[in-house]
Amino acid sequence: MKKIKILLTFDYELPLGGATNYHTALFEPTQKIFDQVGVSGVPIVLFADIWSAIRFKEWDLEGYYIPFCRQLQFAAMHGHDVQLHLHPHWANSTYANGRFVPSPFYSLSSFKDGVSGFSIERLITEGHQALEQICREVKNDYQCIAFRAGGYDVEPESKRILNQLYALGVRIDSSVIKGLRLTYEYSRIDYSHVPPASYWNLSKDGPLNRIGPGDLLELPISSMPVTLGDVLVRRVAKTWNRKTYRSRRYQNTGRGFLLNFGSRRIGSVLRSALNPLSITFDKEYVGYRELRAVVKYQLKKYDWENQDLFLTAIAHPKSMGSYHVALMREFIDRMREEFADRVEFTTYEGIRRDFYL
Ligand SMILES: [Zn+2]
User: What CATH number has the domain spanning 4-355?
Assistant: First the structure.
């Protein structure tokens, strides 16, 4: 029997629709995660929303850019991994009276014809360079090799996006959640047709949901499909446990991007209720039982007699209060209890060595 290798990944970003206190919104919850994984002795991955830092370097150096860099550098120095997360709308967002005002250009593909001088290639290259520069100040052999698209959104311009990432040395993508479908005015995701494997080789010409020659590796966020029955049970639980769930929610002083720009058709809202359940720590209605169900699904579906099983968890520090940090800890402890030395917590550096990328 092979190993179970777990990536604990965090999209390290502000509430994208606005935030009044960056410490509450990002830096404090991230510190709590560092504290916990320090005690547990496991590495994590921060997918850093680098374009927020590029803009805040001009807007608010002391209040955001410096603490942002310090946390990435802390991660790089302490055996954690820092990789590229790209929310491109920062590039043409504005700042007035001490507040940022997000632009609606949510997906990289929306920059396909260039917007305010920003092309897809420029956004990726400058983001990648900025991230490597920050991390190399403390770790001179640091390399940015993995990517997660903001909002999981890579199509329809995957060819340009992946080619540019590849040219810069990125070899792993983790933007796919199998079965995920979302339709917003500025973003459209459809991962309903993906290879029947736990990971797959990509072509740098895309698309993400097709097996290619292996220029890059797709390691999707681990999930399981949800039935209508599950949705109804969750609905009832949400009503029944309303107070408990509310008390679990982290008050981050911010607002979501989609509150500003999220108008959706009713069909899309209904469909997204059936979106898959991921291994995630930042939802108030997810407990260890749900996380174990996803792990069970993955163990059953994919052959781990003959090859390692890779599990990718996703969470957002901005949504993590004490309930969610405790859930993460419980997940780490119980996976170790159950699988002992067959479970290993890894990073993309580790994955690169495993696959000789
Ligand atoms: Zn994000």
Answer: 3.20.20.370
